Amino acid sequence: MPDPDILEALRSLPHFRMIDPRILERIAEGCRWRTLAAGETLFLEGQPCRAFYAIHEGGVRLYRLGPEGREHVVHNLRAGASFAEAALLSFGRFPVHAVATEQPTKLLEIGGDPLLRLFREEERLGPAMVGSLCMHLVSLVERVEELSLAQAGERLARWLLRQPASGKGQRLEVELSMSKRDIASHLAMTPETLSRLLRKWQEQGWIESRRSSVVIQSADPLSALADGEPA
Amino acid sequence: MPDPDILEALRSLPHFRMIDPRILERIAEGCRWRTLAAGETLFLEGQPCRAFYAIHEGGVRLYRLGPEGREHVVHNLRAGASFAEAALLSFGRFPVHAVATEQPTKLLEIGGDPLLRLFREEERLGPAMVGSLCMHLVSLVERVEELSLAQAGERLARWLLRQPASGKGQRLEVELSMSKRDIASHLAMTPETLSRLLRKWQEQGWIESRRSSVVIQSADPLSALADGEPA
DNA sequence: CGATATGTTGAAGTTAATCAAATCTTGTGG
DNA sequence: CCACAAGATTTGATTAACTTCAACATATCG
After folding, report:
1. How far is the CA of B151 from the C1' of C8 (A)?
2. Do A143 and B144 touch (CB under 8 A)?
3. Structure pTM?
4. Domain count, chain B
5. Rg (alpha carbons) of chain A, rounded to whole number
6. Residues 188..227 of A with a Cβ closer than 8 Å to B: which?
7. At which of B97, B127, B148 does a domain end?
8. With contact defined as beta carbons under 8 Å apart, do B127 and B17 qualify?
9. B167: pLDDT confidence band, cut at 50, 70 and 90?
């Protein structure tokens, strides 16, 4: 009887988005929560690797030690990220040290043994995980592309047009799935800038900005912005 | 006798970074190049999917058609990105339309049949691909995190400290793996800003900026910057 | 050497962040 | 149901950071 929190956490990982629930339960049996204090070490370089990890809360720093004892930071990860998959599946040993950077840091430890056994027993697991990961990859690649755009308006217009929209004809209604504060953060701008952009576009008559939705009244100028036309 | 260009292109994909060269050759046999003109359609939503694609040059737009014939852009991808893996491995049909957005757009088409056969025959392929993809995922997650940082100096300092560095003791020498122009682009800043930051840090005595390398003379102030200390 | 691409520097102009404060929501307890 | 507190959003004024534009310098290569 696996912990429902663990199942929920597994489902939220891009690794397992499209995995059969029964298989997921078997993976969940090999999982457990780990909570670390800030600065506490999770594993050391060279140790044999029997699991990989997903950060539920807090942050983790992966680093090597240089000749003079200087930390060489390889990655600095926060909630939502996962790590050590390749160590588990390909290398067998951790290639870096890992320490928690925040207090508290809560990790999901996903045991490798059930996972590797399932890879052998369930033919569809490999392709399903690869497909699932790739879908996530495509999103991230595009997110990187978009964050590289200098203009805040360009980023917002792109994001807005990509949101699932209900509505017929010209009037598209976009339900905002997060708070505006979180949207601003997602788009790497301040809430103030987001608010001002929405107001400006409303004054132009392009949109109607509501509390938790935006009605797009004419998508064309937004599309132009999204494609890099000067504001 | 697979086309060496195809092998090279496959190797450069995060999917196949750690795959046995002999397996890679068998995958390569199911690949071919596709070149499209701007606006040309690659596939339509609902068509059966027998391959996935990697963009070698140009760009591809993935979209659905809304009720009024309005394009709903799902992704806008450029060189280096790949897509339709999940369609191939999980769905069997394309969930979106795909058209080239640039002239010319050159794609590598990776046939699904050899891939799916290999998944069954080669036990290690699944875990190896998952591990490889995850490694790339970790990098991307962190890149997103970093691009969200407002300050250009913060981004550069982080990037610099994470580069593989040779050198003993305090003097770390970082060989620049790309042109400064490309580094600037990677970090979402202009070459001018990059140049000015390097010069400023050199005047502070923190680094020595050379043509294609940077010698870090004291990493501490850079680390402070990278951790978000005000400049 | 000359041509082209890459990198550097300076001045001017914009964008978006910051700071500060007002307004609006939402949830809670009385 | 209302008052209140905490949080979210909006607005305005200011400022700092970064881009843009233009010119120059420096490599790289045939």
Report:
1. 21
2. yes
3. 0.88
4. 2
5. 22
6. 188, 219
7. B148
8. no
9. confident
